[in-house]
Design goal:
This protein is mainly α. The protein is built from eleven helices and two strands. The chain has a two-stranded antiparallel ribbon. The radius of gyration is 21 Å and the shape is globular. The relative contact order is 0.13.
Amino acid sequence: MSQVSTATIRKPSLVEVCRVQGCVIGALILRELHTRYGRENLGFLWIIAEPILFCAAVAVVWTAIRPPHDHGLPVTAIVITGYVPLTMWRHCLMRAVKAFEANGSLLFHRQVTPLDIILSRVVLELMGTIAAGIIVCVGAILLGFLKPPADYGLLYLGLVYQMLFCLVTALLVASLSELSELVEKTVQVVSYVALPFTGAFSMVDWLPQNYRWLLLWSPSVSNIEMIRGGWFGTAVHVHYDLWYDTWMAGLLLLIGLSMTLRIRRHLIIQ
C-alpha cells in the first residue's frame, strides 16, 4: 500500500516536464495555424507567404524610388537585411496583444499556462519569418541584388539576439495589454513611431558621431547592426554593444517572465 502511494505521488523529472510542455507548445502551434489560416487556398503556407509579400513589396518600392546605392550599399540589400528582422519583431509584438484573452478557454486545461500560449505564438512567428527571410534572401542572391553573407557567425549571433528581443517584448506586451486598455490600443502606433529606432532602414555609422548613442540605446539597433555586419563584412562599419545587449535582454526577460507567471490571477476566463 505504501509502495502504491509513493509511486502515485512521484514528482516528474525535469526532462519529463520539458517533454510534456514541449508537446503542449507544439499542439498550441498547430491549433494556432489551423485557427488562423484554415486549410483552404494556401492554408498554413500563409505564415511564410505573408512576410514574403511584405518584404518583397517594400524592397520593390525602395528600389524604384531611391538611388541604386546608399552610403555605398545596394538599396535592395539594405531593405532586405533590415526589414526581415523588423517584420519578425512586429509580428511577434502584434500577436502578443491580448493573446491570453483570445486563448482563455485553453487555460482550463491544467497543463496549459500563459507562458505556453505566448511561447507558441512567438515560435510560430519566428519560424515563419525566418523561412520567409531565407526565401527572400536566396531569391535576391539569385537575381543579383544581394551577395552571400561574409561572416555567418556574426549574422547568426545578430539573429539570435533579435529573436530573444522579439520574445522579451512579446512577453511584456502580452501581460501589459491584459492589464491596460491603453497599452492594447497604442501598441501598433508605438511600433510605427519606433521604426527610426529599430535600425531597419538606417545604420549607426550614417549618423553624426555625437548622436550615435541615441540609436544604440535600442537593442534592436545592435541586433540589426550585427546582422548587417555579418552579411556585408568589411564593406560596412557596424556599431553594437554586445555587453549592453546581453544584460538588457536578460533584465527584460526576467521582468517578462515574472509578469507572465503572475498574469493568470488578473485574467477573467470564460
